[in-house]
Each structure stands twice: as C-alpha cells, then as structure tokens.
Write a structure and sequence with these properties.
single chain, ATP binding, ABC transporter ATP-binding protein, four-stranded antiparallel sheet, alpha/beta
Length: 253
C-alpha cells in the first residue's frame, strides 16, 4: 500500500534521537516522521537500532539526547503509561497478554486512553460501552470465536491479533507495531496484513518494525532504513529497498 506522502503536520516526530549504553552508541541521531493516516515502516539489519528507537519513543528506555513529539507536544522520556494516555500505544514483538484473563478481558483492560479508570462493570456488563467496543474489535480481527477463552491458550498469531485489537480500543493517535508477523503461522500472516490495512483505511496511523520485506512492501506508505544506529535511507518502499546503500547494509553488495 503506497500513496504519495502529504505535507500535513506529523503525528509523531523523532529528532536527533540518541541512546548510549556505557559508552556503546545504540542510536546516533535518528530522525523520522509519521503523518496522519500513514503506515510508516522502520527497517534495518540486526543491531540497526529499531527496537531501541521504539523503546525510547515509548519511554521504556530514557533517551540520552534528542526529542520525541506527539503532534506539537514534547513527550520525550514520559512514562509509558502517560504516553498511552497521550495517544501512543505499542504492540510488542512477543505478544503481551494476561494469560489467565479471557480474550475479551484482555482488550477491555487496555482501555487506558481515557481520563477515568476502567470500571469493574466493563468486564461483566455486556451493555457497557467499553465491553461493546471490545467485542466489536475482537470480531473485527477475526478471533470472536475465542472471546471467552483464556488469552494464554491462544497461538502466537492469535495473540498478535489480540494485541492489535487491544492497542486501538482507546482510539490512539498512533500505534507502534513491533514485528507483527514474526513467529506467526503463514496461514495467519495475510489475516494480520489485511487487519492492519483495513484499520489503517479506517483512520489508524502506524509505525511498524518488520523483517518480512513482502509485508513491508504491502503495508508501508513510507519507509525509513536504519543502519548502525542512524538513518541510512528513506522514501517510498520499493525505491528505498532498491537503494545501493540498503543492499550493501543487508547483503554487502
């Protein structure tokens, strides 16, 4: 899915992001932008800094230097819980679920992008707004038949779909997806791609880290390539992937 990039103000801006670990430079000035309604891909060889970038954006790691902006607000180094309330959510590479809670309860409990806490009745009352919205999303991602099952019993692919539903229940400004198809049965990969694509068509904005280049090309409107902790190339997906610098970074060509 590739469209011409618009000149609208970005939802997310990362400027000169740096992260050092005891003298080791993990990020050395990463810059990126994600605009309303886009799916932006973030790729690079192992050790390029993709996960560290996500961790710094989400407050899982404090940045050594640089800035992260949500709209016009500087949200650098805010706690993850505060960022969720601001409108940034993340689905991790290894799906994070509450294994003893049902699929439905897992989605409801992620309703954190709101000023008031989730009420206990949201778990038990089928008529509550939160419960109804959770049911809609579970049905949308194709796991309604598992709604009352413990989340710990799901396959990796099903947990990824559950996480996708959970990340958007609060209508976030942007969702960070970390390897959405990694470790997934091939039969579910197209389901995940179609789900992300349709959610994007309905207005959800995404920044995605993904190793599967077919998935990257299918989903991304714009692509950033990192190498050695810094920007290497950016542009339309196929153009970026064909760049000699990218081929050299991946294959030594």
């Amino acid at each position: 899915m590739t469209t011409e990039r618009t000149e609208t103000d970005p939802v997310l801006r990362v400027r000169d992001l740096r992260k050092h670990f005891d003298g080791i430079v993990a990020l050395d000035g990463v810059d990126l932008e994600v605009r309303d309604g886009e799916i932006v891909g973030l790729i690079g060889p192992n050790g390029a800094g993709k996960s560290t970038t996500f961790n710094c954006i989400m407050g899982d790691l404090p940045a050594t230097d640089g800035s992260v902006y949500l709209r016009e607000e500087n949200v650098t180094d805010k706690r993850t819980s505060a960022l969720v309330n601001e409108g940034i959510t993340r689905a991790y590479q290894i799906p994070r679920v509450f294994p003893d809670l049902t699929v439905h309860e897992n989605v409801v409990i992620n309703m954190r992008h709101r000023t008031e806490p989730v009420l206990p009745t949201a778990f038990t009352s089928p008529k509550s707004d939160v419960s109804e919205r959770a049911h809609e999303l579970i049905e949308f991602v194709g796991i309604d038949h598992l709604r009352h099952e413990p989340a710990g019993d799901l396959s990796t692919g099903q947990k990824k779909l559950l996480n996708i539903a959970a990340t958007i229940i609060g209508d976030p400004e942007i969702v960070l997806l970390d390897e959405p198809t990694a470790g997934v049965n091939p039969g579910l990969i197209e389901t995940i791609i179609d789900t992300i694509d349709e959610l994007n068509s309905n207005g959800t904005t995404y920044l995605i880290v993904e190793h599967n280049m077919d998935v990257v090309k299918q989903l991304s409107d714009h692509l950033y390539v990192l190498a050695n902790g810094t920007n290497l190339v950016q542009g339309p997906p196929q153009e970026a992937l064909d760049d000699p610098q990218v081929l050299n970074a991946y294959f030594g060509e």
